[in-house]
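Quick note —
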Amino acid sequence: MTDEKESTFLVTHAEGDSAVLKDVHDGQVHTLGSNPGLDVDDAVEATVAPDPPMEVTYQVIEVAERRSVSIEESPEPPTVHERELAAETPTGELAQEPRAGVGEVHVLTPPEPETDEAVADVIDDREGTLSRAARLGVNRVEIRSEPGVVAVRYLP
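Predicted structure written out below.
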């Protein structure tokens, strides 16, 4: 097949007989005509191709890797390093830094009264947050916060 596409996808919807994959690199959505056992919030390194003859739905040709991705809010406060990063970042801005090994840390600096709202925004943007995690090749997103600091940790 000439229209095969190899990428990393986030499973945004799954039923017994179909699934919806979102390419985490270009945002393209692919509706599968069948579900090869995928679950919502799976990140898959896969090759997909249009189903003939209409090419309206897709099929998974190969799954190279599959992992579940999750978001959790931790009761732990941000680390000393994350607090230092926040101190250097203007209020309302975002600092991003690679983690040692795999992943990234994103530190948001909301106004103190809006900290809980900022945490909720990260959790509510489930598709965006999990797509970023899939793109980074990590399995979980941990959110730590204290007034004025929200650390979004993309962890293996």
